[in-house]
Design brief:
Length: 436
C-alpha cells in the first residue's frame, strides 16, 4: 500500500507556549526525510510532496514557524523556496549531511536567512563540523541516553543553539526534558499538555456544564437553554460574542439571548458550546489554551468528516463530532473521564469509544487520533478495517484544519461595536418558574 500522509504537530517551549509546528510526511513506504538513494521511487515521492506543498502552502503556513524535513531530492527541486524564510525551518537528517552537494545547498540557505535544524543530532565529526550553520538541534528522548542528552544540550547552549526534545509521549519523558532544560518539546504528550486543568470537578455542577448537557439532548429545550444562559453574565457575553461574529454575516447586531440562540441555531450551538464553555477560563489557562481548543475542534471536524467514508459505523455524524470534541474533556476538567461522561447524555457507543476504544466507533476515534499523532502503521490498519481509502485522509485532514482556522478566526472577532451586556441581560431575564 503506497499511502501518503502529511500531518502537523505543535512544538511547545518549557512554559507550554507554541513556538511552531512540525510538518511530518509519510509516503511511498518511507518517512519524509527517511533517505535519499536517487531511486525512481525517491523522485516519485519527492514529486508527490512537492506538488502537495505547492497546492497547500496557505493551509500549512498561517504565520507560524514550520519545521519541515527536506531530502536531498527536495533540496535539488528548491522546495524550501515555496515558503517564506520567516515561516520555515529547514530540517535535515544524516542522508543530507553526508551528501556534499546537499550540504552546500544547506549552507547557502543559511546565508540567505533560513533557519536550519538537524534531526537526531549525533556526537560525530560530520555533525560537529556543521554547528555554525544550524539553529536547532532535535534530540530523540526515546532512544538517546540521559548522559549523552545532557552533554549535547550543554554544548549546544554554549554555542547559542536551541535544543528540541522529540518523541515525548509520556509524563516521564516530559519531566526528563524539563530537567535537562531543553528549549522546546514535541510529541503526543506535549500536544495535549496544558499547564493546569482549568476547572475542578465542581465544574460539572456549573452553568457551563449544565448548558453543555442541555444542548446535546436529543430534543433540546430552548427555554431551559435560554434560562441557563440568561442568569450567567459570562455565558451571555460569550454567546453574544459568537452570534455577532462575522461567521454569521449579520446585517444587524444581536442584543439578547433568545435572538442569539435563534441566530446561531441549536445545531450550531450544540457544536460550539464546548468552545464557549472552555473560553470562560481563558484568563486562567496557559497560552497553549488556544491550541488545546483548536485540537478539540480539529478532532470533532475530522471524526465527522471520516463518517462520510467509513463503513458500518453505528453512530451519526453529529455523534462523531461530539466524540471528537469531548475527547479532550479530561484535560479541561480535573476529574476522571468516566466521571465526566456519566454526566453527559452521549450514546453508549461514543462513551465506549472514548473510555474503552471499543467497537467501530472506537476504531474511527483511534484513526483520527492516530493520524494526529502520526502513527503511520495504525493509520493504515484502521483505515483498511473501516473501509476508508487511505489516499483520502491527507486531503480530509487539511480541509478540516483549514475549516478550524476559518471558524477560529471568525468567532474570535466580533463584527463592529461593543455589546451592551447590561441591556442584553435585562432583555433576557427569564420568567419565574411557576410553583408546582
Amino acid at each position: 500500500m503506497n499511502s501518503k500522509y502529511i500531518v502537523r504537530q505543535p512544538i511547545k517551549d518549557r512554559e507550554n507556549h507554541i513556538i511552531g509546528y512540525e510538518i511530518q510526511y509519510y509516503g511511498e513506504n518511507s518517512a519524509f526525510g527517511g533517505g535519499d538513494n536517487a531511486s525512481a521511487n525517491d523522485f516519485a515521492a519527492a514529486d508527490t510532496i512537492y506538488n502537495f506543498l505547492t497546492m497547500n502552502t496557505d493551509k500549512l503556513l498561517r504565520g507560524a514557524l514550520n519545521f519541515m524535513t527536506f531530502t536531498t531530492t527536495l533540496l535539488m527541486k528548491k522546495s524550501p523556496r515555496l515558503f517564506n524564510k520567516d515561516e520555515l525551518v529547514i530540517q535535515i537528517d544524516d542522508s543530507v549531511i553526508i551528501h556534499p552537494l546537499a550540504m552546500h545547498m544547506i549552507q547557502q540557505y543559511a546565508r540567505e536567512g533560513y533557519k536550519i535544524a538537524v534531526n537526531e543530532f549525533q556526537f560525530a565529526p560530520r555533525y560537529l563540523a556543521m554547528l555554525d550553520s544550524i539553529d536547532y538541534i532535535k534530540l530523540n528522548f526515546q532512544t538517546m541516553q540521559e548522559l549523552t542528552l545532557k552533554n549535547v544540550i550543554e554544548i549546544a547552549h554554549s554555542m547559542n543553539k536551541k535544543c528540541i526534545a522529540v518523541g515525548i509521549d509520556r509524563e516521564e519523558l516530559y519531566q526528563r526534558a524539563q530537567k535537562l532544560e531543553v528549549d522546546a518539546m514535541e510529541g503526543p504528550f506535549v500536544a495535549e499538555k496544558m499547564a493546569q486543568k482549568t476547572h475542578n470537578s465542581g465544574y460539572m455542577q456549573s452553568n457551563f456544564f449544565r448548558l453543555m448537557v442541555a444542548v446535546i439532548q436529543d430534543e433540546p429545550d430552548v427555554e431551559e437553554i435560554e434560562r441557563i444562559i440568561s442568569v450567567d453574565v459570562t455565558l451571555t457575553y460569550g454567546l453574544l460574542r459568537i452570534a455577532n461574529s462575522r461567521y454569521f454575516s449579520l446585517r444587524s447586531k444581536v442584543t439578547n439571548v433568545r435572538q442569539a440562540i435563534m441566530t446561531i441555531g441549536l445545531r450550531e450551538l450544540k457544536q460550539w458550546v464546548y468552545l464557549l464553555s472552555a473560553s470562560n477560563a481563558e484568563n486562567q489557562m496557559d497560552e497553549g489554551a488556544e491550541e488545546f481548543l483548536r485540537l478539540s475542534l480539529m478532532r470533532a471536524n475530522f471524526c465527522s468528516s471520516l463518517m462520510n467514508y467509513a463503513k458500518d459505523i453505528p453512530i451519526t455524524k453529529s455523534d462523531a463530532y461530539l466524540m471528537g470534541m469531548f475527547s479532550t474533556l479530561n484535560y479541561l476538567i480535573d476529574a476522571p473521564m468516566e466521571e465526566i461522561l456519566q454526566q453527559v447524555p452521549l450514546c453508549q457507543e461514543v462513551k465506549d469509544a472514548l473510555l474503552k476504544h471499543s467497537g467501530r466507533a472506537g476504531m474511527l476515534y483511534d484513526l483520527a487520533v492516530g493520524y494526529e499523532r502520526a502513527d503511520w502503521a495504525q493509520i493504515d490498519k484502521l483505515a483498511e478495517e473501516l473501509g476508508i481509502q487511505t489516499n483520502l485522509l491527507t486531503s480530509l485532514y487539511f480541509n478540516c484544519m483549514e475549516e478550524v482556522n476559518r471558524v477560529w478566526s471568525e468567532i474570535t472577532q466580533v463584527s463592529g461595536g461593543q455589546i451592551d451586556l447590561s441591556e442584553a441581560m435585562a432583555d433576557t431575564k427569564p420568567e419565574p418558574t411557576p410553583a408546582t
